[in-house]
Specification:
alpha+beta, Immunoglobulin-like, 3 domains, eight-stranded mixed beta sheet, five-stranded mixed beta sheet
């Protein structure tokens, strides 16, 4: 009985610990937040003092997750960086010295954090315009290399119309609201509580990317399937739509299927559209001409469109059977593709085999004069 009682006490203690939204020691989980600025900070003025703007106060407020799979309280420890000036300011709140009795209660934590921000004065240097001689890309890469190699990077631009921001070849979502950022941070911390963050406000390379013109080109053409793949470079990072008159789309938006009859000597116009920018490219198909031979008896191939130059080489994966007719694609010595059909092929119907066709039974008979399907009486 005593063992059961002890077990229940331990179980209740564990449940209580989970409900507080803290870690196993009852302490809120802390995560480092680096807030990167590339130009002046638009501060709030209260009683002639420079205060942290409202959106950053909201960003750094206590985070509480109360979902079924994640019941935690998270505290962000922010540091403000003027990346262009190589200056920083710690915004960290010392919750434990706040004088409150219940420092693990999320509401108490939130009040202490906001009280700290209300009293914190921002140095004037953070409000000065940028005068750095370095390029913005140099500034950003230097900051990330020194401070943020293992951080989760968050791009924020509340006035952006773009969906993504490309940094060193990697695509990042552009957040436009603090609420979305906080939800994202909470979801990341629920999965990996030791994650730290770099929050980049209006990174200047965004404007540089917009100056890179959008280009459209043909990446790949598959003459066997008719699939043609388009590729773009540059642009502003937003979504791109592709189109081509009269062509069916492939499995991806930048793929199209060219019919067999149009794979040589046909001109197509392809378009890539990004916002108000449209890029156009003309492409003339140049696949080898398909030669359709007539079908001779006993599998002999006789071409009426053009002669077969040399021996035919069967193209891998093109063979098949339609009842007793064998078909495949093959190339001659000039590289021309021939579509071949062989009637009464013993490859498909071995000698003596019977098949049902149109309600009647036939048997493959093989002889010196050739192969034929004979009706079985």
């Amino acid at each position: 009985m005593k063992k059961l009682y002890s077990f229940l006490i331990i179980l209740l203690a564990l449940i209580a610990s989970m409900c507080t939204g803290t870690n196993d020691n009852g302490v809120p989980i802390r995560s480092i937040m680096k807030i990167g600025l590339f130009d002046s900070l638009a501060v709030d003025y209260e009683d002639d003092a420079r205060r942290l703007p409202e959106n950053l106060r909201e960003l750094c407020d206590v985070l509480v997750s109360d979902t079924r799979d994640c019941k935690h309280t998270f505290i962000l420890e922010p540091t403000l960086y003027r990346i262009d000036l190589e200056k920083n300011l710690s915004l960290k709140t010392t919750i434990e010295k706040g004088g409150a009795k219940n420092i693990y209660n999320p509401k108490v934590i939130g009040k202490l954090i906001q009280k700290h921000f209300e009293e914190l004065e921002i140095p004037k240097i953070f409000t000065e315009r940028s005068s750095s001689s370095k390029t913005s890309l140099e500034q950003l890469n230097s900051f990330l290399k020194i401070n943020s190699l293992l951080d989760s990077i968050i791009i924020f631009n509340e006035n952006s119309s773009l969906e993504y921001y490309i940094l060193n070849g990697k695509k990042y979502r552009i957040f436009t609201t603090i609420a979305d950022v906080r939800n994202y941070i909470t979801s990341i911390l629920c999965q990996s509580p030791k994650t730290n963050f770099s929050f980049l406000i209006n990174p200047p390379t965004l404007n540089e990317q917009q100056k890179v013109p959008l280009t459209l080109d043909i990446k790949e053409v598959n003459c066997e399937t008719g699939k043609i793949t388009l590729v773009t470079t540059g642009g502003d990072g937003s979504s791109i739509r592709f189109s081509a008159d009269g062509l069916q789309k492939g499995s991806h938006d930048n793929e199209f299927i060219i019919p067999k009859s149009q794979r040589k000597g046909q001109v197509f116009n392809f378009l890539a559209i990004q916002g108000e920018i449209t890029r156009k490219i003309n492409y003339t198909t140049s696949c080898p001409q398909l030669v359709k031979p007539t079908i001779g008896r006993q599998g002999k191939v006789v071409s009426t469109l053009t002669g077969i130059n040399g021996d035919l080489t069967i193209m891998k994966g093109s063979e098949g059977c339609d009842l007793c007719t064998r078909y495949y694609s093959a190339t001659d010595n000039l590289g021309r593709i021939h579509e071949v059909k062989e009637k009464n092929s013993i490859t498909c119907c071995p000698c003596g085999k019977t098949i049902e066709m149109k309600g009647k039974t036939y048997r493959m008979e093989c002889g010196e004069s050739g192969n034929r399907l004979a009706l079985v009486e």
